[in-house]
Amino acid sequence: MTHLLVNWLLSALSIVIVAHLIQGFHVSGFAAALIAAIVIGFVNGTLGVLLKIVTFPLSILTLGIFWLVINAVMLKVAAALVPGFRIDGFLPAFLGAIVLSLVNMALRYMLGA
Fold first, then answer.
1. Are 81 and 39 in contact (CB under 8 A)?
2. β partners of residue 86
3. 4-37: per-residue pLDDT in tens?
């Protein structure tokens, strides 16, 4: 249970960090980041998995780069559902998806989570 809570907090912290790094990626506060982390996880676990299965041939042709597009779309969907979390356009979502995964990976590595 503690592991799940730590991962949730790290994901929310990652969202706040990305909001400071990427223009057009906005979060109103840490509470909105906590909700956004849950919604992003839920959207990626449901709709994201379905889209990745359907677009698998395209992902093979692009050597996996198309999955970044899918992750950007998942962020946009989550932003549409969470008040206080906003992404202004596709480019901030695309860059945010890349930076979010890198920041999240770095935080997890530093904490050993």
1. yes
2. 26
3. 888 889 999 999 999 999 999 999 999 999 999 9
**Cβ atoms within 10 A of the Cβ of 97, count?**
25
Provide the 3-class DSSP secondary structure of residue 87: strand
What token pair was written down for 90? 């596709």
d(CA 101, CA 98): 5
Single out the residue of 5, 30, 32, 31 nearest to residue 113, CA to CA: 5
Looking at the domain assignment, is residue 1 inside a domain? no
Q: Is residue 8 part of a domain?
A: no
Q: Report yes or no: 88 and 22 within 8 Å, Cβ to Cβ.
A: no
Q: How far is CA 84 from CA 19, 40, 54, in A?
A: 12, 14, 31
Q: How far apart are the C-alpha atoms of 6 and 69, rounded to whole Å?
A: 27
Give kind and range of the element (H or E) at residue 25. Answer: strand 25-27
For residue 55, give its domain range: 26-111
Measure Cα distances from 39 to 12, 45, 57, 65 in Å: 11, 10, 27, 23
